């Protein structure tokens, strides 16, 4: 089986290296040689293990290629190229979660019975897509909760471990190569959101775009929030959450406080982890490297082996093509909330805050006031509410912003029980 690699960067070169290094093992497992024969790159590559070209047509025009592996990144160009390839009934593998977040429907229609693999698009080396499609196929999936971005997890882990500020840890993550020079895609939640949509499509047949769901990043999490979390035995993690509520699917990506004894709360550093709760199995946790050349190459090659075995892919994405599930409106999210407020330290402020909460059906579960520094005229207040609706908390925040005693941006975080 001859393979073309579209994108000879960190992942592409790792795919080629692994195929060549472990070719005897791979052949033994699928009874066929899988041979990388050509790769595409933006510029010539020194010491490449296979021929590398810069002209995509030079690859697309070859009739001897059996599988095209897309590792380019981006959305529009990969979609155009993959569409052309699928129309020719040639197999495709992609690691491109942004592409799948926006073009799942079109690609499924184009692929039909043509092999289309995308295990590497979510959580790197964790075979979560195969687990959902095959290992847990007898289960109704009640919920999926995951740490889906290693950069965000590293930053939050180090903030807690070193009592450090966000910008300090972000800089360190960039120095170590865990964060890009422009880290927006990771730290603002878009990367995790794309992955969550792919998983929700498989589990629930839900076909929505990133713009349809709640997405928040970690850039506003402060050392004060870490302090509060530790005081009350919580851990802050950036989560992608999909779960059934009232016959609708709740989808959201945001930082959340977790009880420190929960399994996901113990996942630190750049690792990923995904908790899946099914009606037959109950909860199961899948843990591993979520990014990097070798982890992603492992998932790509697993798809190549499946194609070599000629295993039929009965449904590329969801099994529920005519699902009755609808997306839960963001305002209908129902959970507990954490609030951090910086206020003038004067009589009547706390009374006014609690009055506003009461007016919007919000009750207080936990309250803490951080001691102010000498000569400061402001105090920091921390609240955890009982369960309430998202619409209530958002109205409360708007009302609080109108008060003269509020002296900085209000920070809100959801609590995942």
From TrEMBL:
Residues annotated as binding L-homoserine are 180
PROSITE patterns to which the protein is assigned, alphabetical: ACT (PS51671), HOMOSER_DHGENASE (PS01042)
Q: Where is the active site?
A: 195
Which pathway does it operate in? Amino-acid biosynthesis; L-methionine biosynthesis via de novo pathway; L-homoserine from L-aspartate: step 3/3; Amino-acid biosynthesis; L-threonine biosynthesis; L-threonine from L-aspartate: step 3/5
User: What highest taxon heads this organism's lineage?
Assistant: Bacteria
Output one GO BP term.
threonine biosynthetic process
| Enzyme's top EC category | oxidoreductase
Task: Give residue ranges for domain ACT.
Answer: 338-414
**Catalytic activity, as annotated:** L-homoserine + NADP(+) = L-aspartate 4-semialdehyde + NADPH + H(+)
| Binding of NADPH, residues | 97
What EC number(s) does this enzyme carry? 1.1.1.3
A GO term for molecular function: homoserine dehydrogenase activity
Q: Where does NADP(+) bind?
A: 6-13
The UniProt keywords, alphabetically, are: Amino-acid biosynthesis, Methionine biosynthesis, NADP, Oxidoreductase, Threonine biosynthesis
One Pfam family of this chain: Homoserine_dh
Q: Does the keyword Oxidoreductase apply?
A: yes
Q: Which family does it belong to?
A: Belongs to the homoserine dehydrogenase family.
Please give the NCBIfam families that the UniProt record associates with this protein.
PRK06349.1
Protein name stated in the entry: Homoserine dehydrogenase
Q: Which organism is it from?
A: Campylobacter armoricus
Gene this protein is translated from: hom
């Amino acid at each position: 089986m001859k393979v073309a690699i579209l994108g000879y960067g960190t992942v592409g070169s790792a795919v080629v290296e692994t195929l060549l290094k472990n070719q005897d093992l791979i052949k033994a497992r699928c009874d066929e040689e899988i041979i990388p024969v050509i790769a595409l790159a933006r510029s010539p590559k020194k010491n490449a293990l296979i021929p590398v070209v810069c002209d995509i047509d030079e690859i697309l025009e070859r009739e001897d290629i059996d599988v095209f592996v897309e590792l380019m990144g981006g959305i529009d160009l990969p979609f155009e190229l993959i569409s052309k390839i699928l129309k020719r009934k040639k197999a495709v593998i992609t690691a491109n979660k942004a592409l799948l977040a926006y073009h799942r429907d079109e690609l499924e229609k184009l692929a039909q019975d043509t092999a289309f693999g995308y295990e590497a698009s979510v959580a790197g080396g964790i075979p979560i897509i195969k687990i959902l499609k095959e290992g847990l196929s007898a289960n109704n999936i009640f919920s999926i909760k995951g740490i889906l971005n290693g950069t965000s997890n590293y930053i939050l882990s180090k903030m807690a471990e070193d009592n450090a500020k966000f910008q300090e840890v972000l800089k360190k993550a960039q120095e170590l190569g865990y964060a890009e020079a422009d880290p927006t895609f990771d730290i603002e939640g878009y990367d995790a959101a794309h992955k969550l949509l792919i998983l929700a499509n498989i589990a629930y047949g839900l076909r929505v775009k990133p713009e349809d769901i709640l997405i928040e990043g970690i850039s506003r999490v402060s050392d004060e929030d870490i302090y509060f979390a530790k005081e009350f035995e919580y851990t802050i993690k950036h989560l992608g959450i999909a779960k059934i509520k009232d016959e609708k699917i709740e989808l959201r990506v945001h930082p959340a406080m977790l009880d420190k004894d929960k399994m996901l709360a113990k996942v630190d550093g750049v690792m990923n982890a995904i908790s899946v709760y099914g009606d037959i199995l109950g909860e199961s946790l899948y843990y591993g490297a979520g990014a990097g050349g070798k982890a992603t190459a492992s998932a790509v090659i697993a798809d190549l082996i499946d194609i070599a075995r000629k295993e039929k892919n009965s449904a590329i994405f969801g099994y529920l093509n005519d699902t009755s599930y609808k997306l839960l409106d963001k305002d209908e999210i129902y959970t507990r909330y954490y609030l951090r407020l910086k206020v003038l330290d004067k009589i009547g402020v706390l009374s006014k805050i609690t009055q506003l909460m009461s007016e919007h059906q919000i009750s207080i579960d936990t309250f803490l006031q951080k001691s102010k520094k000498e000569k400061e005229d402001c105090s920091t207040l921390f609240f955890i509410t009982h369960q309430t609706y998202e619409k209530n908390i958002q109205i409360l925040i708007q009302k609080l912003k109108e008060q003269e005693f509020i002296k900085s941006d209000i920070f809100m975080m959801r609590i995942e029980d």
